[in-house]
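Onboarding guide, step 5: your first structure request.
Type a short instruction followed by the sequence, for example:

Predict the 3D structure of this protein.
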Amino acid sequence: MTLRRTLLAAALLLPLPALAQEAVPMVAPPPPKPATQRVAIDTGMGRIVLEIETQRAPITARNFLRYADQKRLDGIAFYRTVKVADKFGFIQFGIDNDPKRILPPIKHEPTTLTGVKHVNGAISTARLAPGTARGEFTISVGDQPSLDADPTKPGDNLGYAAFGKVVEGMEVVWKILDAPTSPTAGEGVMKGQMLSPKIRILKVSRVP
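The system replies with structure tokens like these:
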């Protein structure tokens, strides 16, 4: 009995197997997804649902949500389509300088700052000079990196401010892209790009 106890005690003093001594590597949890808000655009052709980047592009997202929450986008229209190729181009909607709907311009948020790129389905705020954007918006059809900011280019290289993307209803976007246009309406580069008839927006609202 004494010998058995001695052997047991000796065994407890032996080193553990090497495998058991190795530290288990810690796997870092994935970073939390940036906060977003879903918004539905109900049109005469169907519903488009957007995921708005409220955390990554807070200024531009907040501007769009103000227009939506204050019902300033209800009853307006998609009025422009720029179709470069099949399922490539963009469509545009907005307040069209209606003084009853317009809000003050916002600070420009370039894609180099937000990380929100002009990928297929991206929604972006149309502008002239940086800092003039108000209530005009485009939806990209196809990836369009040429609309992103590019500091290596001369002049106004800040691109446009993307702030979300389509997550449902891309088929509605394609229908609008392919909708008929007037050959005479519009001025300058917009001539021949104006939808005829316009695609009415019934309402724009947050999705719970």
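Each response can be followed by summary notes, for example: The first strand starts at residue 37 and ends at 43.
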